[in-house]
Amino acid sequence: MLCLLYTEDLTVNAQAHSHHTACASLEFQIFNDDIDRLYLPLVTRASSDTTAIRQIFDQLVYDRSCLLYGLYVQKAKDYIHRHLNEPITQRQVDRHLDISPGYLCEIFRRTQQTTLMQYVNKRKLCGIQTLLEQKHLKLNEASALYGYADPNYVSRLYKKLFQRNITDKAVKY
């Protein structure tokens, strides 16, 4: 982020990058009406000491990035929960959010400590497990309700993610 000095209002896009440079002393205010922009009124001309302003911008961009991460992740989770009964691909989610697949994977893993597809599969498999235990459905019936055509795949996936068979009773504590 590079701030140029002007005597009028300055608009800066808040996008996460690894390097930020600013040469100004200013006060700032965040407006909640537009998540993609920060409006920064210029208060003084450039000073020789830019350390404080760099720290402000770095913190501002970091906080804003974390907020954006959280919003994208929450929107991804909302999409997933609305479509749990269908096959879900990562591509569908990133297209819905209009962000790149790599960015979605990175922010999801960073904030949730799991991959997007592991999250999807765990949500679906827990739902299937609940149907097996509470509604006494057969595995192929419960799997179909969550968008899986192959109950054998569901069984293998469950074993891989939870280290036990899906048909085993849950251990109660």
In short:
This protein is mainly alpha-helical. It has helices spanning 51-82, 90-97, 101-112, 116-135, 139-145, 151-162, and strands at residues 2-3, 10-13, 21-22, 37-40. The chain has a two-stranded parallel ribbon with strand order 1-3. A two-stranded antiparallel sheet has the order 2-4.
Description:
Helix content is 53%, strand content 7%. It has 173 residues and is mainly alpha-helical.
**In what range is the share of β-strand residues?**
5-15%
H/E element sequence: EEEEHHHHHH
Query: What is the domain total for the residues?
Result: 2
Number of strands: 4
Structural class: mainly alpha
* Side-by-side strand order of the widest sheet: 1-3
Shape: elongated
Q: What are the low-pLDDT stretches, counting only 5+ consecutive residues below 50?
A: 1-31, 34-48
User: Describe the biggest sheet?
Assistant: 2 strands, parallel
Which key terms come to mind for this protein?
single chain; 173 residues; mainly alpha; 2 domains; two-stranded parallel ribbon; two-stranded antiparallel sheet; disordered N terminus
Layout of secondary structure:
Blueprint: E1 2-3, E2 10-13, E3 21-22, E4 37-40, H1 51-82, H2 90-97, H3 101-112, H4 116-135, H5 139-145, H6 151-162
Parallel strand pairs: 1-3
Antiparallel strand pairs: 2-4
